[in-house]
Design brief:
By secondary structure, the protein is α/β, with parallel strands linked by helices. It has 2 domains: 232 residues, Rossmann fold (3-Layer(aba) Sandwich); 31 residues, no CATH class. Helix content is 39%, strand content 22%. It is built from 11 helices and 10 strands. A 6-stranded mixed sheet has the order 6-7-8-3-9-10, sandwiched between helices. β7, α6 and β8 form a beta-alpha-beta unit.
């Protein structure tokens, strides 16, 4: 059993077609897992189930030995946080300071500890000088960093990023991905919901969902060798990897042969 263990998980909206169908996944402490899939594959629903925002019709979710249910939800939410796709949807405070404090207030963190954590984690995400700013004055990337600070301040050790880069400009997206990498290096467990293969390549493992089911799961470097898995899941490999796989299959060894083969393919 993993640090996060999902067994026979199924869910449907209004009891119609199952959005998640018999999902079985184990994620170990400190893993970085990218969850890939086309639109409608169940990625975001899977994320919501992990943090208890929806209640599955069947199956179970266990986090650090605790099964997620109504009684355990409070304790489990101390361990796991989520950064959503739209930065504006996750702000609840009038100022950055208020927003970072919000989760800690729900956990009844003592005021002195709360003040110390706000300062520490705002500084950690390079948002300390913005503590008294209103959310409307921040860029999308800055809002995402504030959301991360709020999660870290609750001393969680699992963060889910649900398409968190999709509404950011290229510069902010690169900055956020760099910070996610840092969080992983610091020992946090990262679950990244994405449709961007280039982002997914940074993760240790890939979990591909297709039509609400687990279609493939393995180390990133292993799954990337199997082009058909991505084609059948309506996902495209980056051009560089696609070419590299074809060249490898053709057994071009020298630099000269590789370059010539690449030009010929074009």
């Amino acid at each position: 059993m993993g640090y996060i263990s999902v067994k026979d998980l199924s869910f449907s909206y209004n009891h119609k077609k199952k959005v998640l169908n018999n999902i079985n996944v184990d994620i170990h402490k400190g893993d970085w897992v990218a969850v890939l899939g086309h639109n409608g594959s169940g990625k975001s629903t899977f994320a919501k189930a992990l943090v208890g925002l929806i209640e599955p019709q069947s199956g179970s979710i266990t986090i650090d030995g605790m099964e997620l249910n109504e009684e355990s939800a409070y304790d489990i939410r101390k361990k796991i946080g989520i950064v959503f796709q739209n930065p504006d949807n996750q702000f609840v405070g009038v100022t950055v300071r208020d927003d970072i404090a919000f989760g800690m207030e729900n956990l009844q963190v003592p005021r002195e500890d709360m003040i110390e954590r706000i300062e520490f984690y705002a500084d950690k995400v390079q948002m300390k000088k913005f503590l008294d700013k209103e959310p409307s004055q921040l860029s999308g990337g800055q809002k995402q960093r504030v959301a991360i600070a709020g999660i870290l301040a609750m001393k969680t050790d699992i963060i889910i990023f649900d398409e968190a880069t999709s509404m950011l400009d290229p510069s902010a997206r690169e900055e956020l991905m760099s910070y996610i990498k840092t969080l992983h290096e610091e020992g946090l467990t990262i679950i990244m919901i994405t449709h961007d293969i280039n982002e997914a390549l940074l993760a240790d493992q890939l979990l591909i969902l297709k039509d609400g089911e687990v279609y493939a799961q393995d180390e990133s470097k292993e799954l990337m060798k199997h082009k058909h898995l991505f084609e059948e899941s309506h996902l495209e490999l980056p051009i560089a990897l696609d070419v590299a796989n074809e060249l490898k299959e053709a057994k071009y060894d020298s630099v000269k042969e590789t370059l010539w083969a690449y030009v010929s393919m074009k």
